[in-house]
């Protein structure tokens, strides 16, 4: 169902001919065993019963809030969303899209910087109304543990973020100022 839906969406939205990132709304469960919902209606029921949550809403809501889950609940066609600071959705993109910035290996800022670059290149951010993914619980990664425990790690990440902003400014000029302004206002 899922791969068929994605292939169909890619064809209907003419993804090969346009600059678009198809956003797959993300959810999570705290249960180690879960019967995966077979439809959006079933997922919404699980969400309403509290066995699923919107992804990271309790620890990092900014990462996925721009997906606009309230709109997604009733959406029947793809809808466009605007970039916002720290947005890090899961996306389906053309193979020739910008690659992930290799500075951001380990934990922190890989998806955020990628979406920022897609937005800078004027990719449309389109939420798929009938797609979804579910994150299952797992042990914390080695890298997130380093991020949480090491001020040095966090300092290095901040330096790389500043460097990334400078590179965006060089590549996209004034259009990239919104990213730096957003970063400074947080």
UniProtKB/TrEMBL annotation:
Can you quote a single GO CC term? Golgi apparatus
Question: Which gene name belongs to this protein?
Answer: Large2
- Identify this protein by name: LARG2 glucuronyltransferase
List, alphabetically, the PANTHER family matched. Answer: GLYCOSYLTRANSFERASE-RELATED (PTHR12270), XYLOSYL- AND GLUCURONYLTRANSFERASE LARGE2 (PTHR12270:SF23)
Its annotated compartments are: Membrane
Question: Pfam family of this protein, just one?
Answer: Glyco_transf_49
Which domain of life does the UniProt lineage start with? Eukaryota
Q: What membrane topology term does the record carry?
A: Single-pass type II membrane protein
Keyword list (alphabetical) reads: Glycoprotein, Glycosyltransferase, Membrane, Metal-binding, Signal-anchor, Transferase, Transmembrane, Transmembrane helix
Coiled-coil intervals, chain numbering: none
InterPro entries reported in the protein's UniProt record: Xyl/GlcA_transferase (IPR051292)
């Amino acid at each position: 169902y899922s791969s068929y839906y994605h292939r169909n969406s890619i064809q209907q939205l003419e993804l090969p001919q346009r600059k678009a990132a198809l956003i797959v709304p993300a959810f999570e469960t705290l249960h180690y065993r879960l019967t995966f919902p077979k439809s959006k209606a079933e997922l919404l029921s699980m969400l309403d019963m509290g066995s699923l949550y919107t992804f990271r809403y309790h620890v990092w809501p900014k990462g996925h809030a721009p997906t606009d889950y309230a709109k997604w609940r009733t959406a029947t066609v793809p809808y466009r969303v605007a970039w916002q600071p720290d947005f890090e959705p899961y996306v389906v993109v053309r193979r020739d899209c910008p690659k992930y910035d290799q500075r951001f290996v380990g934990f922190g800022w890989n998806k955020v910087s990628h979406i920022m670059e897609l937005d800078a290149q004027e990719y449309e951010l389109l939420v798929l109304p009938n797609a979804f993914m579910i994150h299952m619980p797992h042990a914390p990664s080695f890298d997130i543990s380093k991020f949480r425990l090491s001020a040095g790690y966090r300092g290095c990440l901040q330096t790389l973020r500043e460097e990334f902003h400078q590179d965006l400014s060089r590549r996209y000029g004034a259009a990239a100022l919104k990213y730096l302004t957003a970063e400074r206002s947080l």
